[in-house]
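Hello,

Our lab assistant flagged a job as stuck in the queue for most of the afternoon. It eventually completed. Since we weren't sure the result was trustworthy after the delay, we are filing this so someone can double-check. Below is the sequence as submitted and the structure that was eventually returned. Let us know if re-running is recommended.
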Amino acid sequence: MGQERALNDTTNITFCVISQKYSRHYIYRFSCSKSLYLLGPLNPIRRFAIFVITHRWFDILIILTILANCVTLAMIQNKFEDDGITKVVPDYDYYTDRIEYAFLAIYIMEMVLKIIAKGFVINKYSYLRNRWNMLDFIVVISGLVTTAIGDDNKEAGNLEVLRTFRVLRAVKTISILPGLRMMINALLSSVVQLLEVMALTLFCLMIFALFALEVYMGKLRQKCVLIKGGPLDPNNTPIHPNDPLRDKLWTE
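-- returned structure --
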């Protein structure tokens, strides 16, 4: 009975998919339990989603989309006021909005395919169990909320913070490139180990700052000022404000 129950319980059973990307082989792990309580490992829809997200051209498409989206974000023209009237270039604003919808649709497609292939949050290797996928999820949801509200809605002014999440779309590149993701994870892990070194460095800076404060406090009050007819004035005459030599005549 115990063995049969263990075989029927697929929560902790996983399977791997090996994919070749960038002249290397990468291993992707998935749970054998049903994705979204509907799609098993052999379900054609889930198999298609796994095939797509593990294919190298899928990563290339997402990377190109992120780069193009960064360019369009830099080209967005904000509305401005002139004599109390809000103005913006109509055609420019129209096309940038449509392009933004296209980028958001690609990000939604990526998220849906990964949720179908991995599951949402229940299993160990599901979509939201990955920290980088959590960042992608926040970016997509914030984009959906701002798109649903719209710029012309009265409540749109309260959602400016959500629009700033669009800047995080460039960080999605880290979740796509495995090598870059490994480097960032190693860097973040090393920060914990370097806390003592950072504390020692901060302590040394505080010592030198206090030393300089005690030594030079009240000593650096003198400064050079321009005096009309001063010792460095060649003719000892008042200096006109538009005189080209005005900035070159200083007292000792």
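-- support follow-up --
The delay was a queue issue, not a problem with the job. The result is valid. The chain has three domains: 2-176, 185-221, 222-252. The first helix runs from residue 2 to 8.
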